[in-house]
Structure formats: C-alpha cells, structure tokens
C-alpha cells in the first residue's frame, strides 16, 4: 500500500476519514436530485469550488442551503409585515416615519432617545 501522506504534508486519508465519520452523524437521509445546468454555469461552478478547495457538489449543497435560509427569512419578514399591517388597521394607530427614522439613527449613533409613540391615523 502506498503512502497516505499528501503533497502538502497533511494526512489526507485521516482527514477524509474524519470528515466522513463526523458528517455522517450530522446528515439525515438524503435523496438524489438531478439538476441540469448550462455549460457556462457548470464551468464557473467547478472553478469556484476548486478555488475554495471543495467539491462542486458540496458547493451546490451549501449554496442551496443559503438560498433556502434567505428565502425563509424573507417569507418570515413578509409575514411579520402583514401582521403589523393588520394590527395597525385594527388599532387605527401607527408610527410617523420621521419619528421612527430619527429614533433608529440615534440608536445607531449610540444615543438614548425615547421610543416613538403610536399616533392615530384615522379620522
């Protein structure tokens, strides 16, 4: 059997075994999905993955994970906005944008400022 030591002086075999043994316990069941990519995108993907010292597969999984998290956060933000709008319509009160902007800017500068108070917007 040949040497298990890689060109960079690291024990690549041990690293591979460690990665496989630690990630198997963290990953639940996986299914296979076929993804058709334009040739140009596939080449760019391979290039980026190589530069990051990872596989194209791992890069795609990470990218999809990040995209799903971002989409979930956006959906939660929109749901919160819808809830706030419904509460505003029910109460008939809201915050003046100028008051909110001044408050946020003061807080960003580290200043203490009294929170804006809601005001009736219906007549």
Automatic annotation (TrEMBL):
Protein's organism: Salinisphaera shabanensis E1L3A
Example GO biological process: regulation of DNA-templated transcription
Protein name in the entry: Uncharacterized protein
InterPro entries: Arc_rbn_hlx_hlx (IPR013321), Ribbon_hlx_hlx (IPR010985)
């Amino acid at each position: 059997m040949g040497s298990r030591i890689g060109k960079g002086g690291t024990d690549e075999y041990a690293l591979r075994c460690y990665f496989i043994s630690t990630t198997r316990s963290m990953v639940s069941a996986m299914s296979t999905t076929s993804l058709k990519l334009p040739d140009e995108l596939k080449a760019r993907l391979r290039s980026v993955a190589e530069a990051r010292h990872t596989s194209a597969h791992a890069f795609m999984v990470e990218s999809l994970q990040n995209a799903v998290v971002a989409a979930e956060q956006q959906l939660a933000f929109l749901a919160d906005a819808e809830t706030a709008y419904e509460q505003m319509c029910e109460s008939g009160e809201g915050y003046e944008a100028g008051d909110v902007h001044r408050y946020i800017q003061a807080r960003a500068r580290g200043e203490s400022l009294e929170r804006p108070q809601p005001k009736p917007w219906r007549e």
